[in-house]
Amino acid sequence: MKINQIRPQDNEYLQILNRLALKPERLYYYGEWPKERSLSVAIVGARRCTAYGREVAYNLAKALGERGVLVVSGLAYGVDSIAARGALDGGGQTIAILGTEIERIYPQAHVKLAGEIVEKGGVVASEYKLGDKLDRKLSFLARNRIISGLADVVVVVEAAEKSGSLNTASHAIEQGKELYAVPGDINRVMSQGCNRLIFKGANPLLSVEEFLMQILPKKRRTKKERAQQISLFADTEEERKVLEKIAEGVIDGEEIMEELDMPVQIYNQAITMLEVKGAIYSLGMNRWSLT
């Protein structure tokens, strides 16, 4: 496979990386990057995942691939490689970000998978080339910011309480990405990280179909349709104001309160009632969208 290189500012799909606090100067890669932005979901999780984690990662990635959503991950054992396989089996494309030099695909057992990713229109990339001095532990953590940086939505499938997947989740929160975590058995080590993320505000991924309904682009409503929805669900002046802000694209709760100069207790009451009535749904981290 031919090694190419690119600066993020030279490609529309990659320009989102310019927003990172520590943006990569260039990426070395095999394959061909998308020419423009498209919906992208990062799927990360434990290397030593359980059968439950394997099933969820594969089914989720396959469903995304079938719907043309680009799947981003690493190429590690466990959830990373399973997500790549699911996306490919769904007829989709996937991007794998390495924590090693581009010439040294790791693990070697996944060289064939890397070739298939490229062959089917995806990309295998790294910010490192042969000769770069790497601290392997730090380089794998550093690549996590790129995985979350490329995605619009980040999903953690399984993770222990201290893991690289939670490092990716931290980057996602810092970057303002939608964060989902798959809940699991409270007695399993590999569920503790995800359950903790949900406790801290991440959106629980309760079913693949529900997740797809939440993230796939919805038909853009006309002003008349938005007005009808607001009229249908808003029973108080405060609910109307909150709905109008969300309809305008202000999805962060703190921003809504600030722009409306609304006390937190009034906001909480309005947002709770709107969610109960099905007018809005949570994106996690006090962020909201119209249904």
What are the defining features of this structure?
alpha/beta; 291 residues; 11 helices; single chain
Question: What does the model show?
Answer:
- This protein is of the alpha/beta class and 291 residues long.
- The chain folds into 2 domains: 4-215, Rossmann fold (3-Layer(aba) Sandwich), CATH 3.40.50.450; 223-290, Arc Repressor Mutant, subunit A.
- The protein is 43% helix and 15% strand.
- It has 11 helices and 11 strands.
- The protein has helices at 51-66, 79-89, 111-119, 136-150, 164-174, 189-199, 208-215, 223-233, 237-247, 253-260, 264-276; strands at residues 4-6, 27-31, 40-44, 70-73, 94-97, 123-126, 153-156, 178-181, 203-204, 280-284, 287-290.
- Strand 5 (94-97), helix 3 and strand 6 (123-126) form a beta-alpha-beta unit.
- Helix 4 (136-150) packs across helix 5 (164-174) and helix 8 packs antiparallel against helix 9.
